[in-house]
Design goal:
Elements: H1 2-15, H2 22-34, H3 38-51, H4 56-68, H5 74-87, H6 90-103, H7 108-121, H8 126-138, H9 143-154, H10 159-165, H11 172-192
């Protein structure tokens, strides 16, 4: 069914004027996602929203379906991140960055740059600060500790998230530097429960 939709939809797409293509592109993206052509789906979504930004909500729905099925690739998550950032949904944007970083840890510098853009929008977003701190620590930048501390100050309920952010660093200098913060947070969590 989806293969047929892709075949015929692609043929029709070529014959449409540019301003008539975005809705069909979005439908084709959904069909591509159903048959596992995720890079095609993501590319069509980006083109669709690029031509008609009013389709961003529908595009987010399609990308969230892909993500919910556990099939989201790095580019899919980054596209979803950009849509959430543009919509001002910082929490969901941060979670997309976290997912993307989980897939491509080597892209941590890109994540730091994107976090900077989000901080410009929402400077006191606690979850963002924790993630930003973790990304900095992954690069060996000990200022990441301050960012995680800011996140906890902005929302003390994120202590458990902060402890998770402080796990598994290959850099011995980072490991040595975070031990006191991690111990203090774990102590607070022990008293809170």
């Amino acid at each position: 069914y989806y293969e047929e939709a892709i075949k015929w939809g692609s043929q029709v797409l070529e014959s449409l004027e540019l301003e008539e293509q975005p809705e069909l592109m979005l439908a084709l993206a959904k069909a591509h996602s159903k048959v596992g052509n995720l890079s095609n789906a993501t590319g069509l979504i980006r083109r669709s929203v690029g031509l008609d930004s009013s389709l961003a909500g529908k595009a987010i729905e399609v990308l969230e379906e892909i993500k919910a099925e556990g099939n989201a690739e790095y580019e899919t998550l980054m596209t979803l991140y950009r849509l959430y950032r543009e919509a001002g949904n910082i929490g969901k944007a941060v979670r997309c960055l976290e997912g993307a970083l989980g897939q491509k840890e080597m892209m941590v510098e890109v994540m730091l740059e994107e976090c900077g853009k989000l901080i410009d929008i929402a400077p006191i977003h606690a979850e963002l600060r924790v993630f930003y701190g973790k990304a900095k620590l992954l690069l060996g930048d000990l200022k990441g500790i301050e960012e995680i501390e800011k996140g906890i100050r902005f929302d003390p309920k994120l202590k458990r998230l902060a402890v998770e952010a402080l796990e598994k660093f290959d850099d011995p200098e980072v490991e040595k530097s975070i031990v006191f913060l991690k111990a203090a947070i774990e102590k607070d969590l022990g008293h809170a429960e």
